[in-house]
Design the sequence.
């Protein structure tokens, strides 16, 4: 299939004009008496260059579980609702944000980002996407911020791109979509990335993608590799590998962000803390300076994306405190209005709500107040 | 290495006599003013026959992640502390139970049970273990109950053994240690087991083992395949496969039990409920009669084994209610006294505590009150 970017863009422009996007029911947020600044921190987008590369990728074979998502999201013509929404920055997205009282989207390239392309293509796509997204942020600094992408499989070039986007675009954070060609970031060959993030004082959002090939089999039925289950297993496992691999002893100020209420880890911290010293005494795992949960509390923040249940929110507040939780929607895969209603109606203090809605994001992503 | 059961038994008897077991600090339970009957529902044991077969298994090659556990637990001579404790029913176990105010152990064959042996051997070991354990239960019906084992990979023979142990020994439940040779029970070829359990009105405890080979790779470092993380991923994934595979539409009265506060599933129920209908509409998963969480609440109970944190307990009480939670220690892998202190000091009502400590176990495992 020939790639025709103009056809693609023409089609989604037509869809925008026809009002075919925005499947969300846009209700007015129920709101409290306090006016919160609502900064949503895991909001996906894409660029025409990335779409073109995804369409080429979709033609080839790959054992990756993400190929289903790649083929169903990027190939159909006319574009799927999700693809159209991902490509849209200033039209329906802003209208829905306005209707739902969402002040700002912290934009990031939709998973799996550039991580299914060879390193050269991944580096070049990341740079062009970062520059395009930075243009939108520059045009509307009250409405958009961004997390920059890079190619984790080219760690030295990644570190340079990280420095470049901070210098050139004042970018406030980065995003990595879990494994890259089935490799995890606890391997020290990737640590130039962590060194750069720590030096630049910018967090890395460790976003889900479908499970790596080495753990794929039980997730290949019932769509279990998806957001329903496999995303969390993949990303929670990755995050725990980083803790147990000593990443945060080497980079004590590094901050990571996990979506979806911490990808399950908050539920397990006590059990992990209980078993780690037993396994250490048996010589099965290397020495850490602190308990695993100490790293989780010091080096991780979590977001509420796609986990809109007050019980889980209150549990996480108890376990982690209000300074380590941020609000997120996961647009366009989740709708904006319910995410606002969820947080507006959360039975927590206004002070905590303000931290979760905006204060923490302003602090960790360097967003002007 | 020649197998010498008499040497093995002689050694652990000598260890018992020397007081070398019971690494637990046995504190007196802090207790409330109410006297609770404390029934612990996930308490491991083994039998000399199984140990002999495990030692033979340990000599051979196997890609199973459980082989590390098999070799470290069953091979060392003199026996490890854990093996000695697993083989002991009426000596140190009862003393520690008395000191910790534990009324009853619901005994089960330690994971992976008979599930690493060929079907013929597995059937015969299960039968001999069930009969031996039933002898201990018969001798001390106030102190012991049991969950019977069978060979899931011989489903028809399993169903016969299930009927036999209920008829002959009045057994109140069964145990399966997650996958069997990497196969999961959502495959209808196993459903004779569920049919029998439902007809006999006896629950099946779906106990962890290490991840199946198809998901092994990311768990092979940092001892992550263990109780620290992989057990829950394996078993939670298995349980969700059963829900999504329609097991509980076919067997609506079947009851399963998950340890370790539900192997993560309670944390995710809202997200699973949210994504299931989206994936169904896309044709990616088959129709279910109810929401996934409805099955979890109707067809599952959870236990507290190895997750001794009041925050998680209170979260689960909110999500599932006190009728679906049972107390468990996971002896000898967890100590008895802390498990009692955890539940005695739980900030919940005495009525809920009584359900969790004994009422639910009496009801679902047919334990005389």
Sequence:
């Amino acid at each position: 299939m020939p790639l025709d970017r103009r056809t693609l863009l023409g089609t989604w422009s037509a869809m925008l004009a026809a009002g075919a996007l925005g499947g969300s029911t846009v209700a007015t947020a129920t709101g409290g008496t306090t006016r919160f600044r609502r900064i949503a921190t895991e909001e996906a987008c894409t660029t025409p260059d990335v779409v073109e590369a995804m369409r080429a990728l979709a033609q080839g074979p790959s054992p990756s579980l993400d190929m289903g998502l790649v083929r169903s999201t990027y190939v159909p013509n006319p574009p799927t609702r999700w693809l159209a929404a991902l490509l849209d920055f200033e039209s329906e997205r802003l209208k829905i944000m306005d209707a739902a009282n969402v002040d700002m989207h912290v934009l990031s390239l939709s998973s799996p980002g550039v991580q299914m392309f060879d390193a050269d293509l991944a580096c070049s796509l990341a740079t062009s996407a970062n520059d395009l997204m930075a243009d939108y942020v520059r045009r509307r600094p009250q409405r958009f911020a961004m997390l920059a992408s890079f190619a984790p499989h080219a760690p030295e070039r990644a570190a340079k791109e990280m420095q470049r986007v901070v210098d050139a675009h004042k970018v406030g954070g980065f995003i990595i979509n879990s494994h890259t060609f089935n490799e995890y970031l606890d391997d020290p060959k990737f640590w130039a990335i962590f060194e750069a993030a720590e030096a630049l004082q910018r967090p890395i959002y460790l976003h889900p993608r479908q499970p790596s090939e080495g753990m794929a089999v039980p997730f290949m039925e019932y769509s279990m590799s998806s957001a329903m289950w496999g995303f969390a297993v993949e990303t929670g496992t990755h995050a725990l590998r980083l803790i147990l691999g000593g990443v945060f002893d080497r980079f004590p100020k590094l901050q990571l962000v996990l979506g979806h209420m911490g990808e399950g880890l908050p539920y397990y911290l006590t059990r992990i803390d209980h078993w780690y010293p037993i396994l250490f005494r048996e010589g099965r795992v290397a020495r850490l300076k602190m308990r695993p949960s100490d790293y989780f509390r010091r080096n991780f923040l979590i977001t509420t994306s796609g986990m809109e249940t007050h019980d889980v929110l209150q549990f996480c507040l108890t376990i982690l405190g209000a300074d380590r939780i941020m609000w997120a929607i996961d647009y366009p895969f989740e709708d904006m209005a319910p995410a606002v209603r969820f947080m507006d109606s959360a039975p927590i203090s206004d002070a905590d709500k303000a931290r979760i809605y905006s204060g923490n994001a302003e602090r960790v992503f360097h967003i002007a107040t």
User: Anything to note?
Assistant: Strands of chain A lie at 39-45, 104-109, 144-146, 174-177, 204-207, 256-258, 300-303, 325-326. Residues 12-32 of chain A have pLDDT under 50 and may be disordered.
